[in-house]
From TrEMBL, chains A, B:
Source organism: Fibrisoma limi BUZ 3
Protein name listed in UniProt: NUDIX hydrolase
PROSITE patterns linked to this entry: NUDIX (PS51462)
Domain of life: Bacteria
Domain Nudix hydrolase: 3-142
Keywords: Hydrolase
Top-level taxonomy: Bacteria, Pseudomonadati, Bacteroidota, Cytophagia, Cytophagales
Length: 236, 236
DNA sequence: CCAAAAGTGTTACATATACACCCATGC
DNA sequence: GCATGGGTGTATATGTAACACTTTTGG
């Protein structure tokens, strides 16, 4: 037997929600399409699954093509499969989301694909069901960032506590108390001081920290939860 | 244009993890395969996506075929897409999990498909990557049941608080304090007394409750979290 | 000297946990 | 009477939330 006899083969697409953070707002990397279909409209970065390619590898490839980045945080989100979601041909789309350091990408690749970083609050209407995809990704990011310290994936290697706080404020769209936040983050032992100070800030007083990779792995492996109180915020 | 020119069409399967609860243990509805491939081995219930069928509809159809049930809790989990996951032909599988009341199903449909309810703790080795699928489903169930009161989907319409407690003990594999559990559940206002008592229990003292459907919807819509302290348990 | 950013300390409140007692039923 | 299962109450600990003060730097 060389294959299943019944049933139809279907086109499998992948779409990628790419989150970034510029120090103030949460951003999305979006494409102003310079190709058909839906030429000229905004969409997520996407592509098709090849027959000889693992699903996750395909997502990695698509992310690499657009950003020049590999080894980023990349997680499968959900698969969208309404019959008419793509008017050209019946296509199901496996959606991934990724967290990247906005400073690390390849500007040429972005230019080639006509991609730009857009504030989440200014997101244009996207094609097909891409708006729903973004909505689902944001929900997942909020949930995940409450239980696991994945927010660091959006920051440069060295960062200050107030920068980290701004990131969480952007993710959950809330204002946080500086003192409580600092105390809780320090209690996680996830940060290692570098001795350096952040000279770009106004007062040059911010201490730069690095992530403690070992502790980080412990948290990712789930021996303990990260910021349980944020789970409530994931529900909104 | 009638379709995308490039890229290959791929077979899309669906597999379904069906959870039940018999009052003591969490159970899975599994198939002892009376068909090829992997005749005689255990697997999840599955099927293929038709070209003219929404993905979620296909999952509903497969669940219905096996259990005779519709309108159950059914949620997409994840898509498995390793190239060699199915040795017969390259197939990606979109996995759903479902919560059913174990008393409600159609015994004939079960018999036809050679299906039986198996304690999660006695799960046999399953074909392909189905073991991983079950593992992921259990993790998702634990997380979800901590934030949303979906556990009720596994119980009959009327149930006692101790029964509900046993369910949560089975899901999280822990022992809970009777008094604290009762107080917390009552505080949610999710339960409505029926006035009846559970005459099957030894002391006939257990009060039977029904779910307050409106409150239930509120929780599902996420205006408040359900049992935040359980999120910690989801991580193990 | 003042404004803005960053670092640290204290208190009150809510929530989770641990534990003790009483009641009803069947045997 | 007593074992079992089911219902209710209270003290403690832990963690979250609310709030005040000090220091440094640039203008």
């Amino acid at each position: 037997m060389t294959g299943y006899q019944h049933s139809s083969r279907i086109l499998v697409a992948l779409d990628c929600i790419i989150f970034g953070f510029d120090g103030e707002a949460l951003k999305l990397l979006l494409i102003k399409r310079n190709f058909d279909p839906e030429f000229g409209k905004w969409s997520l970065m996407g592509g098709f699954l090849n027959a000889d390619e693992d699903l996750h590898d395909a997502a990695t490839r698509i992310l690499f093509t657009l950003t020049g980045l590999q080894n980023n945080y990349l997680e499968q989100l959900q698969t969208f499969g309404a019959v008419k979601r793509d008017p050209v041909e019946r296509t199901i789309s496996v959606v991934y989301y990724s967290l990247v350091n906005i400073d690390d990408q390849d500007p040429l690749a972005l230019k080639t694909h006509n991609a730009s970083w857009i504030d989440l609050s200014n997101k244009p209407r996207l094609i097909f069901d891409h708006d729903q995809m973004v909505e689902a990704a944001l929900r997942q990011l909020r949930y995940k960032a409450a239980l696991y310290p994945i927010g660091f994936e959006l920051l440069p290697e060295k960062f200050t506590v107030p920068q980290l706080q701004k990131l969480y404020e952007a993710i959950y769209n809330v204002k946080l108390d500086r003192r409580n936040f600092s105390r809780k983050i320090m209690a996680t032992e996830l940060l290692m001081g570098t001795g350096e100070k952040d000279l770009t800030s106004v007062t040059k007083k911010g201490q730069l920290f690095k992530l403690n990779k070992e502790k980080y792995q412990d948290y990712l492996n789930g021996y303990q939860s990260f910021l349980p109180e944020f789970t409530e915020l994931s529900l909104s």
